[in-house]
Amino acid sequence: xxxxxxxxxxxxxxxxxxxxxxxxxxxxxxxxxxxxxxxxxxxxxxxxxxxxxxxxxxxxxxxxxxxxxxxxxxxxxxxxxxxxxxxxxxxxxxxxxxxxxxxxxxxxxxxxxxxxxxxxxxxxxxxxxxxxxxxxxxxxxxxxxxxxxxxxxxxxxxxxxxxxxxxxxxxxxxxxxxxxxxxxxxxxxxxxxxxxxxxxxxxxxxxxxxxxxxxxxxxxxxxxxxxxxxxxxxxxxxxxxxxxxxxxxxxxxxxxxxxxxxxxxxxxxxxxxxxxxxxxxxxxxxxxxxxxxxxxxxxxxxxxxxxxxxxxxxxxxxxxxxxxxxxxxxxxxxxxxxxxxxxxxxxxxxxxxxxxxxxxxxxxxxxxxxxxxxxxxxxxxxxxxxxxxxxxxxxxxxxxxxxxxxxxxxxxxxxxxxxxxxxxxxxxxxxxxxxxxxxxxxxxxxxxxxxxxxxxxxxxxxxxxxxxxxxxxxxxxxxxxxxxxxxxxxxxxxxxxxxxxxxxxxxxxxxxxxxxxxxxxxxxxxxxxxxxxxxxxxxxxxxxxxxxxxxxxxxxxxxxxxxxxxxxxxxxxxxxxxxxxxxxxxxxxxxxxxxxxxx
Length: 599
Fold this sequence. Notes:
Blueprint: H1 10-13, H2 23-39, H3 43-47, E1 50-59, E2 66-70, H4 72-82, E3 89-104, E4 107-117, E5 121-131, E6 137-149, H5 169-177, E7 186-189, H6 193-204, E8 209-212, H7 220-223, H8 235-238, H9 255-268, E9 272-274, E10 278-282, E11 286-290, E12 296-300, E13 303-306, E14 329-332, E15 346-350, H10 354-365, E16 369-373, E17 379-382, H11 383-390, H12 401-409, H13 413-430, H14 432-440, H15 455-461, E18 465-468, H16 471-476, E19 481-483, E20 488-491, E21 495-498, E22 503-505, E23 508-511, H17 520-525, E24 565-567, H18 572-591
Parallel strand pairs: 1-6, 7-8, 7-13, 8-9, 13-24, 14-23, 15-16, 15-23, 16-19, 17-18
Antiparallel strand pairs: 1-2, 3-4, 4-5, 5-6, 10-11, 11-12, 20-21, 21-22
């Protein structure tokens, strides 16, 4: 069964679950043996507690990196290489977080949380036990995660500032923001959610951090996007570190509301942010920042975190012949603002994913003649049917966010793909009327890579899907026109010519066609000699982990030339969880306790 990626169904395991199974006793017995084996570094004993096709995912705790090991031979090598480097102790089962789960009638596992300590860290873990034919239970998944560093607790809760401040706070904050008394040890480029999250994490670890934001106000990265923009992830999934959204917050956040929240967050967390500021250059690592008054200031830092979003906000426009012949207006979706800017005109939107649907719906709502040009099939899922199924742990009445984050991370992507294949089928059946209506209009749909929905599409290319909040019905009803019957050949003076000879007139063509390679912004600032040292950033590696996100961007060796250059990006949930990982890595470097990344 090793290396065969299949779900651990009861049929596959040739097993069953007794109705009166004592879940706590099973978890406790397994965990006692696991803790003893790990602390004594008895690899054979550890392996005996795992099924052959086990998944073990580690985030920094035992590898100082992100790794997924699949099958006992892979786990055996990992443990043989890494256990000798760590002293493990203080294993404790979280009895309040042990439960039997039945995600489907033919799947049963006992999920449990635990805590432990390494040589320098405080860590957590999640395991899932499946029943075997002989009546025993073994682990199908193990997740280990670095939570904190020994001796360097976050400065919050009981460690917050207890001293009263009578009339001095404003002046103190002004000096802190201007870095008058202390220069930063970390510069974060970008003041969106990713930059603010990592700055907040670093502040809690006592590290002076300066956020450099090119826009005039914090939140302008959302405020200046198209007016119809609204998050398609639910509020329970989107909380930021330390300050969750209020209980009255809407399920789906309008972009302008989020922009104001980010501004409030930076103020409340007392983050040091320079707006209307641009990083002009960077050496290893000398950072020169130019502010709105054109004055420059230079900092010597050990760490620079790039937090500039997917593709650094630089739109990608396909190279279609004849663009110079077109007499109308052509723009990327990142430059689009209001549908009413094009009132009375014929608009063509090239693309059929999230931005394209949002923009087309806005045009249709405002009475603008709009046609969507679909070049490739898109995965469509209604938020009504999909979100409660996919986001059950991030929903009203779900577990605390920190618990949900660790459950979510405990599923390696290759295992999550198998789960999503089932969930995607369920969602498609629930969305049958919607999908049938789209296909009848000529809209090309897909169920994603290997019928796994949008998961791998998001991880591999950051797009290819639309989580429907109404635009799909507008296509079905003809309010949004659709052309999906062939590739574009070229521009004409009055619009687009297609390879089948058909044409489409347009006064405005909007390209909702994604963003540039995330490495673009790094290359613009790094010395020329280092630009080719960048590793791929987005996309999955052979283990199913993202290439360089939430780590350094120049490889894993201690002498890599880009050590100290970090990537922070992702949606609000990913930034909330993984900002802690970047902060712990940087703090470990600064305190001289960072180990060797496992390769």
